[in-house]
Design the sequence.
């Protein structure tokens, strides 16, 4: 039986087999995953040399999640979807490992993802003159609050996250863990929210300004 002939039930049964049948099913699934990754990552040239490693990482995740397969799609479709998610996440982590945290947190205190000024995504919008004024005031206030209100560690985390660095990589570069980074971000956001409210900008006003 080939990978294309296996039913969903056969995949689950064979992959759980501790003997030769399980080894064959895993080999065929891995080949299926490798082909899918070559197609799915064709526009990511940096991925071509990593396909085998990505396939192995994907296999481990798929085998660990066999119990969660619900037959809402074909098993092969489900497995390929997991492999693509695993691979994109791994490529994203690999990219950010090459970006020092200091490079993201240097310079202007508040910028948006992509290392551009935070105001840039809003400058060419269809905002009314009143909204444009409110946006500039809010962004100026946020910049001052990031510089003056947050702790140094909170500033590092918030600015890195604004620029798109995943929390896992922030934690790795700071020698911390994701839960601690999440709490730092949560506390920092609350501090910024309080500063906005004290300056007269309610949550509703902020939403109106950036809608």
Sequence:
């Amino acid at each position: 039986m080939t990978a294309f002939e296996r039913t969903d039930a056969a995949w689950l049964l064979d992959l759980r087999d501790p003997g030769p049948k399980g080894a064959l099913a895993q080999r065929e699934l891995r080949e299926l995953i490798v082909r899918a990754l070559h197609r799915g990552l064709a526009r990511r040239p940096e991925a071509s040399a990593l396909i085998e490693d990505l396939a192995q990482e994907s296999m481990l995740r798929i085998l660990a999640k066999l119990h969660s397969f619900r037959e809402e799609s074909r098993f092969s479709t489900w497995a390929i979807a997991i492999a693509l998610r695993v691979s994109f996440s791994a490529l994203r982590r690999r990219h950010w490992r090459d970006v020092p945290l200091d490079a993201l947190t240097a310079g202007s205190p508040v910028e948006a993802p992509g290392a551009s000024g935070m105001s840039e995504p809003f400058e060419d919008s269809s905002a009314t003159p009143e909204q444009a004024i409110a946006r500039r005031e809010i962004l100026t206030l946020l910049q001052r609050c990031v510089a003056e209100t947050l702790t140094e560690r909170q500033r590092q985390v918030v600015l890195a996250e604004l620029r798109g660095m995943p929390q896992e990589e922030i934690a790795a570069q700071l020698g911390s863990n994701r839960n601690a980074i999440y709490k730092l971000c949560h506390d920092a956001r609350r501090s910024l929210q309080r500063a906005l409210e004290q300056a007269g900008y309610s949550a509703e006003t902020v939403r109106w300004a950036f809608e």
About this structure: The chain has a mean pLDDT of 82. The two ends are 56 Å apart (CA to CA). Strands lie at 111-112, 116-117. The longest strand covers residues 111-112.
